[in-house]
Amino acid sequence: MEVNNLALTQYRNIENLNIDFSGNLNIIYGRNAQGKTNIIESLWLLTGYKSFRGGKDSDIIMFGKDIAKIKAEYQTSIRKIVSEITLSDKRRAYKNGILLSSPSKFVGEFPVTIFSPAHLALIKDGPSERRKFLDVSLCQLSPSYREAIKKYRYALMQRNILLKDLQYNSQLYDTLEIWELQLALYGAKIIYKRLKYINYLKNFSENVYNGICDKAEKFSIKYVFLNCNGENIESEEEIKQLLKEKLKSGRKNDVLLKMTGIGPHRDDICIYINGKSARVFGSQGQQRSAALSLKLGETEVIKEITNESPLVLLDDVMSELDYKRQDYIFNKIKDYQVIITTCELSGEIGKHEGKIFRIENGGLS
């Protein structure tokens, strides 16, 4: 995939902006708070997800205005597409001029990987960040995964509500099984797809880490689910039965805690360097290399599964990395369309050819 043009209107501090991108490297530089990340964010919204910066859509609209617009023209391997998003009282999405029933219809249509300073904490933060990393990647790749996540979260919410209500009406206890069947059904689909994804990611991310450290260290990842090692589980049906059993055996504890303590919403990716936990024992440099390996591995997985090269967004992350890691990134992503934001053209960034844009007060110069 290749983005040819991006147009923004009344988007945060950007009144009007129009960019024709290079098919390879694009560098957007400027001082802080000038609008660099706003450009990256607008492209990310075209994936159908909410902003990676958090907050409400209304925060994106320029102060004093009623509407913001994003429009991108891009080319996939088979056709040209124009995607548009308008933000006003609600978010509306258009594809080739046709209003979509929901902005979420963009999910999977616009493959993107993003690497920001926040992702450098992917290793040292809690399991929720690593689950989010998995879910965002898989939702881009599989409509059935998105549907399973949606239905699983609904069943989880209903079971948790029921667990809280049991203190007022113990007769509701028998109805727990209804929601457990739903949790087992959709939870098994989620876990099974995560396991398959991890098998792809494992190979790519290990190769990236080997490249960064010249094979001096051993990097590995493992998906840990349902509080078991899972080595002998080979099918979705086996996962479903195991999840049913664990939900049933955990009822007493769940009633006490008033929450569901087992399931894909509690699972994790364990990352190891030389057989030890990178989160607990890894140095800052090792943790950064591990996070970089996961994100670059994600890029390779998307390309492998979809046969489309995702757009690579690097938001103000290069300054956080030493020259060796910067150089490795550039060599690894040279065959992708890349958009980099940075405060200044220095180090490895300044050595590479591509389109360069300077941004100041929301405008290009």
What's the helix-strand series?
EEEHEEEEEHHHEHHEEHHEHEEE
What is the molecular shape?
A: globular
Helix content: 25-40%
Low-confidence stretches: none
How far apart, in Å, are the first and last alpha carbons?
Answer: 27 Å
Supply database-style keywords.
single chain, Rossmann fold, alpha/beta, 365 residues, 39% helix, 6-stranded mixed beta sheet
Describe this structure in words.
By secondary structure, the protein is of the alpha/beta class. The chain has nine helices and 15 strands. The protein has a domain at 1-111 and 308-365: P-loop containing nucleotide triphosphate hydrolases (Rossmann fold, 3-Layer(aba) Sandwich). The strands form three sheets. A six-stranded antiparallel sheet has the order 2-1-4-5-6-7, with helices on one face. The chain has a six-stranded mixed sheet with strand order 8-12-13-3-14-15, with helices on both faces. It has helices spanning 36-45, 127-141, 143-165, 176-213, 236-249, 251-257, 278-281, 284-306, 323-332, and strands at residues 2-11, 14-20, 25-29, 68-75, 80-87, 91-95, 98-99, 112-115, 219-224, 268-273, 276-277, 311-315, 338-342, 355-360, 363-364. A hairpin with a 2-residue loop joins strand 14 and strand 15 (363-364).
